[in-house]
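> example.struct
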């Protein structure tokens, strides 16, 4: 049996060949098994000797198989190594980057962190009272209209701004308060320059002697940190239900510098007015302090709010709002080094 196996093993070149041989010799119905069966018909006096020999044969067969198996494995390994070319260039791992919206939110949060502001968050599915009522929107205010706001029920809606986060923060805490609230907001609006979901960052500072001068200083610092000190900043009177007085903030246009272009082509960033609106702000209306349960005439504060997409477009020169939502790698990967 052993010499027969040796010839068989010499011709076996793969693990499959080897397995076939093993079944033939050592399998349950294999050659060795047949010999073992025949032991039963032997004279009892002969059995021990023949049995012992059969076991030795079995061991020898097993050893021969193991040896050949090692040899086949070693060969396979050295073949694999021979076809491996260590001089080939490696495969580069793709490195992710932050979305421009996340980048701007992070930059603004970092700037306000240096001024001691904390980040506050609130639900995107909001109650009417926090989104509108407590922040001084009259019942017939146009933005409460079904055409502007996405309602879930009469009293539940998708927040249209992050101002409810300010109201919730005021209700839960006593001044001094300095927070910003970055997050998603929703409006019933969809065209080239509006998406039904967009991002806002609002902020507020409340203490006993906060003035409009503090607001101007803080926002100027924000704008210079975001866009560079060479930008001019302009404050204009405006109106919001939750602030009095209210202002809007413009920055000077970096594209045409307010001078327009030689051929009279209108500037696509500022329409050649020289200014771009980037923020709404104002002194918090005392009605909100009353709604928050604060004592009369104790606190003053300012609030401001900005659209993140708008800031990102101005900062990075993005001309199409849809870019933010298409997840095109050619667009997104440009922000890897920012
Ligand atoms: N909530 C305003 C908006 O959504 C922005 C704003 C916030 C204005 C705070 C003034 C003060 O447009």
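> example.seq
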């Amino acid at each position: 049996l052993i010499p027969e196996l040796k010839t068989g093993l010499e011709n076996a070149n793969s693990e499959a060949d080897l397995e076939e041989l093993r079944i033939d010799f050592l399998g349950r119905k294999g050659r060795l098994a047949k010999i073992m069966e025949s032991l039963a018909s032997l004279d009892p006096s002969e059995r021990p000797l023949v049995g012992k020999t059969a076991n030795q044969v079995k061991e020898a067969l097993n050893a021969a198989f193991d040896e050949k198996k090692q040899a086949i494995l070693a060969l396979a390994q050295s073949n694999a190594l021979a076809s491996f070319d260590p001089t080939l260039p490696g495969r580069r791992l793709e490195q992710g980057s932050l979305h421009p919206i996340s980048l701007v939110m992070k930059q603004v949060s970092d700037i306000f962190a240096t001024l001691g502001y904390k980040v506050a968050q609130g639900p995107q599915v909001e109650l009417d009272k926090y989104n509108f009522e407590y922040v001084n929107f009259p019942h017939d205010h146009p933005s409460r209209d079904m055409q502007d706001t996405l309602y879930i029920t009469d009293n539940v809606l998708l927040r249209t701004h992050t101002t409810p986060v300010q109201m919730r923060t005021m209700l839960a805490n006593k001044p001094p308060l300095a927070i910003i609230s970055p997050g998603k907001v929703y409006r019933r609006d969809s065209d080239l320059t509006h998406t039904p979901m967009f991002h806002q960052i609002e902020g507020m500072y409340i203490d006993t002697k906060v003035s409009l001068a503090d607001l101007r200083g803080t926002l100027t610092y924000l704008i210079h940190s975001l866009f560079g000190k060479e930008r001019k900043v302009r404050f204009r009177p405006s109106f919001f239900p939750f602030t009095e007085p209210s202002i809007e903030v413009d920055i000077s246009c970096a594209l045409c510098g307010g001078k327009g272009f030689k051929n009279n082509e209108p500037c696509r960033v500022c329409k050649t007015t020289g200014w771009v609106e980037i923020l709404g702000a104002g002194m918090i209306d005392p009605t909100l302090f009353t709604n928050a349960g604060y004592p009369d005439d104790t606190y003053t504060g300012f609030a401001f709010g900005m659209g993140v997409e708008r800031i990102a477009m101005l900062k990075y020169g993005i001309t199409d709002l849809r870019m933010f939502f298409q997840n095109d790698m050619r667009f997104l990967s440009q922000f890897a080094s920012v």
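> remarks
Residues 161, 163, 202, 240, 243, 280-282, 303-305 surround phenylalanine (CB under 6 Å).
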